[in-house]
Design a protein that fits this description.
Blueprint (H helix, E strand, L loop, with lengths): L2 H7 L3 H23 L23 E5 L3 H17 L4 E6 L2 H11 L4 E4 L5 H11 L1 E7 L5 H9 L4 E6 L3 H8 L2 H8 L4 E4 L2 H10 L6 E3 L15 H10 L4 E7 L4 H14 L4 E6 L5 H10 L4 E3 L12 E3 L6 H6 L3 E4 L12 H4 L5 E3 L7 H9 L3 E3 L3 H13 L1 H17 L3 H10 L6
Parallel strand pairs: 1-2, 1-4, 2-3, 4-5, 5-6, 6-7, 8-9, 8-12, 9-11, 10-11, 12-13, 13-14
Length: 431
């Protein structure tokens, strides 16, 4: 480490001390909030860094916050396992849904722990027990005490698929000293775009440790046809217009149902596949549909979609790709409410025309690419969504063209995965 790097890594230590004090004062609230984020396979003591490490092999550690980040990181995780066969890969998440996704995707081929609360002692214990050869943080997971513990124990740190929205930047600027101290502990930032790189640099990230590699989200398999499960589901729906509204949030489901009613004025047989973002909302959304006199079938109960069924509730985990593949059109949620949107590429990769609301701050790079390719339709209201659905249902050729445009845009923007792996090679001591 050069003298300049050492100085950068020790910037504003007082900010981290104040941050830690605030965490201790808020610890009852934090612990209560995370008490619910639990799965039977992972004891709650992991939140204090009290992990039990079984593998003796050298370890690579990747942290992804929740289910969306785990899904987006899947190509990287699979590539790391192949690229470093002598290493054992450890994935941490913050949420229980993220933990369940790791288990379902990798079935014991990687280890999973809950990331510890960012108390100084918990962070030190976690790093001391795990002893990773490299730490990889996905997107915007910047935990000051975990980064400090890695720095103290000489664990190289990379932030990959690094993104920072304009809104998030404004929030972080209020604690700029703390963020500068944290960013000083990062050995390499693989930013999604020039905009993201510049925002990180405004917070104190060193320019010479930053590379713009593009978005890992584009490095996904392009499906030329629906999966067998999707085909089977589509057959069960019979010959009728089908659209999906996926990853929806509270306040958005009501708008989706308004749009669906508008569509059914023109296409009475239209079926909506409704997939709430969070499993704890499944029952609430089912009640909402019933209150609005929708004829509901729930996937979790294996209920049959009849001719009079108007809404098929996708209340299961890990089946979103299957449900996308059974639809003619896809609306991606978190975008008609101020959430910032969700992964637009999942339906686009299957050649399905994509619609969204205007709130796309979390996926602005992806939205820009799809927008330029004329593969994304953005609507500002439930009424506008209904009108867009009708227009696309009226025009099969336009649906095909937009679906192919989305798939072509993904293919043209792939390559971030290889650039990321090349950068990580330089950090791994044993590589």
């Amino acid at each position: 480490m050069t003298k300049r790097e050492a100085t950068a890594a020790q910037r504003h230590p007082w900010a981290r001390w104040l941050y830690s004090l605030a965490l201790y004062l808020l610890s009852p609230l934090l612990w209560w909030r995370l008490w619910r984020e639990w799965v039977p396979t992972n004891p709650r003591r992991e939140r204090l860094g009290l992990i039990k490490v079984s593998s003796e092999r050298p370890k690579l550690w990747l942290h992804a916050a929740s289910v969306g980040e785990v899904q987006a990181a899947r190509p990287l995780i699979e590539s790391l396992r192949k690229r470093y066969p002598d290493h054992h890969l450890v994935v941490t998440t913050m949420t229980a849904t993220g933990a369940e996704r790791v288990t379902s995707l990798f079935r014991g081929e990687v280890s999973h722990y809950f990331v510890p609360l960012d108390f100084p002692g918990a962070a030190r214990r976690f790093i001391s027990r795990l002893q990773p050869e490299m730490a990889i943080f996905f997107e915007t997971e910047l935990w000051p005490n975990l980064l400090h513990a890695c720095h103290r124990q000489r664990v190289p740190v990379a932030v990959v698929n690094g993104r920072l929205s304009a809104k998030a930047l404004q929030g972080y600027l209020r604690i700029r000293a703390l963020m500068a101290d944290a960013l000083g502990k990062i050995n390499w930032l693989a930013a999604k775009s020039e905009q993201d790189a510049k925002r990180f640099q405004r917070l104190g990230m060193m320019v010479e440790k930053t590379t713009v590699v593009g978005s890992l989200k584009f490095d996904i398999p392009l499906l030329r046809g629906a999966s067998a499960d999707s085909e089977h589901l589509r057959t069960a729906f019979d010959v009728r217009p089908v659209w999906i509204a996926a990853s929806t949030h509270s306040g958005e489901d009501e708008q989706i149902l308004i749009a669906h009613a508008k569509l059914r004025e023109v296409y009475p047989a239209a079926l909506l596949i409704l997939v709430p973002r969070h499993p704890q909302r499944f029952d609430d959304v089912a009640v909402l549909c019933q209150k609005q006199d929708q004829q509901l079938a729930r996937r979790s109960r294996n209920e049959t979609v009849r001719a009079d069924t108007t809404v098929y509730l996708g209340d299961t985990m890990g089946e979103l790709a299957t449900l996308y593949g059974a639809a003619d059109l896809a609306f991606v949620g978190g975008s008609l409410v101020p959430v910032g949107g969700h992964n637009l590429l999942e339906p686009a990769s299957q050649g399905i025309p994509v619609l969204s609301g205007p709130e796309l701050a979390n996926f602005e790079d992806v939205a820009t690419v799809l927008r330029k390719a004329n593969a994304l339709i953005e609507v500002a209201s439930a009424s506008a969504l209904g009108e867009a659905l009708i227009a696309l249902m009226d025009d099969p050729e336009e649906r095909r063209r937009r679906g192919e445009a989305g798939r072509a845009a993904i293919s043209a923007n792939a390559g971030a995965l290889q650039r990321t792996l090349t950068g990580l090679d330089r950090l791994l001591p044993s590589k």
